[in-house]
Design a protein that fits this description.
Length: about 400
């Protein structure tokens, strides 16, 4: 409609299944899969879908899921329902005592809801499909906004994440790529991905996050946690962490991101990159505590894209749905090289326009307004960059 053309010289693929968007974690739960519907509405209203290969993703198979996850955990996820939970899994009942069997992480953060397994296998299938498009050279940038669920463990759900689609996608990439760099800009620590690959040197994980051991989920990811360092672990020094305090702004974050990611790419020379774009690092997020605008968040995508290395872009957290949708639509436009062509006034028509009424119909509302004071002085950021550069020196033998 407004002349968004295909990117010249490279291909972008979009992987999604609208069934994912229909699932509900429960009324009071902050994770809202319908934020994906809102994202897609903006993307389509701008006409961006015409510039990508769009793929209806399929559910991951059990064989694919057990490439990382434990079989009894997948059995559990595929058979549990809100109705049979108490009968078939009595030890998961709140208050059950004296039982030390499987727990699987079920609880308030990771509830059992209707269609849970369909939800999980669809977002995982999309990330696996996206990774395969990269390894088959059919795509240079592959996008799955429904993925990015970085906390899930081998046999445990954690922090709204059940299946770790990122780990499954990286396992696909590793079939063809010698080295994969994982970058995580969600406000939370990417602990599940870090843990999955902390004994290999073929994946370098790098997470930027708010860190407070006592008060902020999941409480891991200090600067000096670079993976188990015993001498025969090839994965030693292959997890990097950038712990931050409340209130970081666009200018600081962009400077820090480029100062850290640049040397990581130069030193590690990844042949593929996975970028987790959790949008809970934006200002005004319901769970987050940073002051990033859509532009600051998006600048990370632009910077990573500029290296022209095969790139898998996934979503993640993000709890103020209208701003998640703005950010991921903007980042889609960056991927297809159309960000400069978009009119910042949202071209939305009813019934979606009202979702954006709070800040007005703009793609770039000011989100930096100081709900949180910036507790990251320049000296602190400089000490992080120095430490990371020091850590990178250990990566060569
Ligand atoms: O803080 C906790 C746990 C619950 N307490 C016992 C400690 N959980 C957090 C989980 C945040 C997960 C973030 C996921 C992601 O990184 C990737 C998708 O973004 C939590 C919070 C919070 N404010 O941090 N859970 C909830 N809020 C929650 C609130 C209402 C209903 C259910 C969960
Ligand atoms: Ca992170
Ligand atoms: Zn998060």
């Amino acid at each position: 409609r407004n002349g968004i053309s295909r990117p010249k010289g490279y291909t972008v693929s979009w992987h999604a299944n609208p069934e994912v968007e229909k699932h509900h974690f429960g009324m009071a739960h902050p994770m809202k899969p319908w934020r994906l519907t809102l994202t897609k509405e903006i993307v389509m209203a701008y006409g961006m879908h015409t510039a990508m290969d769009t793929h209806l993703s399929r559910a991951a198979t059990v064989e694919e899921l057990v490439e990382f996850h434990k079989e009894d955990y997948i059995d559990f996820l595929s058979s549990v329902t809100p109705q049979n939970l108490a009968t078939n899994y009595p030890w998961l009942k709140p208050g059950a005592v004296g039982y030390s069997g499987p727990f699987f992480g079920v609880g308030e953060d990771c509830p059992i809801f209707d269609g849970l397994f369909e939800y999980c296998s669809l977002y995982a299938g999309a990330s696996i499909d996206a990774a395969r498009k990269l390894t088959s050279h059919q795509s240079d940038i592959a996008i799955n906004w429904s993925g990015g669920l970085h906390h899930a463990k081998k046999a445990e759900a954690s922090g709204f994440c059940y299946i770790n689609d990122i780990v499954l996608a990286i396992l696909q990439l590793l079939r063809h790529h010698p080295r994969v760099l994982y970058i995580d800009i969600d406000v939370h620590h990417g602990d599940g991905v870090e843990q999955a690959f902390w004994s290999t040197d073929r994946v370098l994980t790098l997470s930027f996050h708010k860190y407070d051991k006592e008060t902020f989920f999941p409480g891991t990811g200090p600067l000096d946690d670079t993976g188990p360092t015993h001498p025969d672990n090839p994965g030693a020094h292959h997890s990097l962490n950038v712990p931050l305090n409340d209130g970081i702004d666009d200018v600081s974050y962009q400077w820090l991101f480029e100062s850290v990611v640049g040397p990581c790419i130069d030193t590690y020379r990844p042949t593929a990159i996975v970028l987790q774009c959790g949008a809970d690092s934006l200002g005004h997020d319901r769970l987050g505590c940073f002051n990033l605008n859509i532009q600051g968040h998006g600048s990370c995508v632009s910077y990573v894209k500029s290296f022209k290395i095969p790139l898998l872009v996934v979503g993640g957290g993000g709890y103020t749905p209208r701003n998640v949708a703005r950010a991921w639509a903007h980042e889609t436009s960056i991927c297809i090289g159309a960000d400069k062509d978009l009119d910042p006034t949202l071209p939305l028509h009813t019934p979606f326009r009202h979702h954006f009424a709070e800040e007005g119909p703009t793609l770039f509302p000011p989100l930096h307004a100081t709900r949180f004071e910036n507790k990251n002085p320049r000296t602190y950021l400089e000490s992080i960059v120095t430490a990371i550069r020091e850590q990178l020196r250990y990566m060569h033998g």
